[in-house]
Structures are given as structure tokens and as C-alpha cells.
Amino acid sequence: MESTVSSDKGIGFAVVLSLLTLVGAAVMLGGPGQVAKAWGFALAMVAAMLAVVFTQLYW
After folding, report:
1. DSSP string computed for 20-53
2. N or C end of the chain: which has fewer CB within 10 A?
3. Which positions ≥6 away from 36 have C-beta within 8 Å?
4. Are 21 and 47 in contact (CB under 8 A)?
5. Could you tell me which of 4, 7, 1 has the C-alpha nearest to residue 54?
């Protein structure tokens, strides 16, 4: 049985979380210290993972 979804939530979540991933990557590259760079990397990784999860969940 096939089901269709008429919502664009997956795309919206992917776009927002992709932008958050870019912010995390920018912090990782331009952060003032090792701890800030580590938090930027963590933000980028979690946001990228959530972008994939929400895209597959809602699309």
C-alpha cells in the first residue's frame, strides 16, 4: 500500500537544519578556542543528522 504525503515539512526542516549546520561549521572554522570549535563541530553534526532524519520522516 502506497501512501502520499501532501506536506512539505520535511523540506522545511531540512532547509532550517542545513542552515544551522552551516552556522555550526562556521563556528568550527572561526571559533576563538578549541572548546568553541568543538561545540561548532557538535552543532554541525547534530543538525546535519537531524536534517536527514526529518527529511526521511516527513517526506
Report:
1. HHHHHHHHHHH-SSHHHHHHHHHHHHHHHHHHHH
2. N
3. 27
4. yes
5. 7
The three-class DSSP label of residue 5 is coil
Cβ distance 13 to 55 under 8 Å? yes
Indicate if the pLDDT at residue 1 is higher than 70: no
C-alpha cell at 17: 537544519
pLDDT in tens, 24-45: 999 999 999 999 999 999 999 9
The conformation of residue 11, written as its DSSP 8-state character, comes to H
